Amino acid sequence: MSTATPQKFEFQAEIKQLLDIVIHSLYTEKEIFVRELVSNASDALEKLRHTQLTEKEIQDGAAELEITVTTDDKAKTITIQDSGIGMTRDELVKNLGTIAHSGSKAFLKALGEGGAKNSNLIGQFGVGFYSAFMVAKSVKVYSRSWQTGEPGHVWSSDGSGSYEIEPAADLRRGSKIVIELKDDAGDFASDWKAKEILERYSAFVSFPINLNGKRVNTIQALWLRNKNEVKDEEYTEFYKFQAHAYDEPRLRLHFSADAPLAINALLFVPKDNTEKLGFSRLEPSVSLYCRKVLIDQKPKDILPEWLRFLKGVVDSEDLPLNISRETMQDKSLIEKLNKVITKRFLKFLEEEAKNRPDAYADFYREFGNFIKEGAALDFTHKDQLTKLLRFESSLTEKGKTTSLADYVSRLGAEQKEIYYLVGPNRAAIESGPYLEGFKARNLEVLFCYEAVDEYVMNNVREFDGKKLTAADHADVKLADLPKPEGALSDDDVKTLTAWLKETLGDRVAEVKASDRLVDSPVLALNADKMMSPHMRRMMKAMNRDGADSPIRVNLEINPRHAVLKRLFETRSAHADRAKLVAEQLLDNALISAGLLDDASTMVARLNKLLESV
Ligand code: ADP
Question: pTM of the full predicted structure?
């Protein structure tokens, strides 16, 4: 058989089928053909590098290992050339005319399984070389093998069933793929378009890529380097490039794992939480790579929702080659990735919290809401996340926080619950009536300042077998304290509480002597299990139903307090004024609880009381 003249070949039947779909499917991201061809070029260079290790005689042995992309806007062509391993005539036939290789095979298999109806199917597979026919009128592959003595050839096809091969003189080692673009794909012949695509998908390819004489990939795939050899500045530069960020990263985690998946990952926590600053909800933005080639810039499921603030890169060699470099449909694989990365990141945070508590506290101040969201909603990681929660408490200084584990370590043997109070700030909680009973008994109370905290505490429910309990709930039972001197007697208390209940009527569910008051005269406890005061405030802010239903409180009185002792005495002699005082005491308690909706009645009454002074 002569090899000197053009020879025509029919594509294998499967290739015809494949081409037909590639060409006719309405695949939106046509640009991936650039990535596919650059990846093939990079693979060919990698193979050459390996060959160089064992072979002495190599065609054009001194040629640089690089990828050259050129665009010609007039001729409407884009050319991708490499100095890689090249192909002999036989290899051209075998590699580009039959379907021995894996990616396309998997694609056809999926097609056979009824995928043909799914026009997006190509998007899920890299069909490698053949993707060029999405945009090509014709494709020419000039190639010369690394083996000395092998001449060069050019393979050409318009994708319609057959291809030709003929000898080509004066070729250097490697392959050069020249694509004559279809009329509607002329954009790919412009420098800016090619640059954009190369920067997006191939920024980290290890070999230099020159586009029209200019180097496009200058940043290294840092995640594959040994972390002991990477400088802080390099990490920062990488972060800024990869995350399109202007700040410095706050934390970083660079790790690799071998089992159950081979993963190299480089994750960053930015300096600021933009969601907290009022910007829109963050999109997942840790990108997925397979051997330095971008698979998906914003994959949805490789991290749980609450980690959406992370930036960086996850690279896994185990992304199956048969699904070659495209968005993967393999759910179980993504789940595995998710599991490994989340676990590792949680461990990292735990270590940070232990080894660098101040930095962790800073992180928590900025990004704590994501940890809370996870603790409340991510059942799988709830335990680890709960450990990462931090609160101010009645025992910490202002601005300093404690973990639940530390809280539990300070517990007395008899304390079965973890108490917390929600309020707008530390001063409000400390000056309110709820804390004093806990203080008097040396019970620590966690302080929660944010609207979501109550929801989080309700969802987390318990820690280390101890129930998380709102300290202002009516159900909380506190141990007896020694009876304070000078208090009203039990009988007097009974009389007074009965009188108060009668006087206040429907405004209170119950009136009783308090086991938690020390310095304040009264407090209101929420009698409604379903709706706490804070929840009610939130619903009111959102104009939700139910917010206006009258709230039922239990009123607790302090039998030692001067106001109540006096009320007991004057209740009969000055009935009118005593009634006003009772009403005012209830309103005072409601104000402390944040439950007084309209103060006008209260102010009018208070003025009346002041008249009598
Ligand atoms: P895949 O890359 O998934 O194997 P392709 O259709 O992209 O499938 O390529 C088929 C084969 O052609 C490759 O496996 C490789 O052997 C060969 N090939 C493609 N491009 C080049 C190139 N630039 N240099 C050398 N060989 C190549």
Answer: 0.74
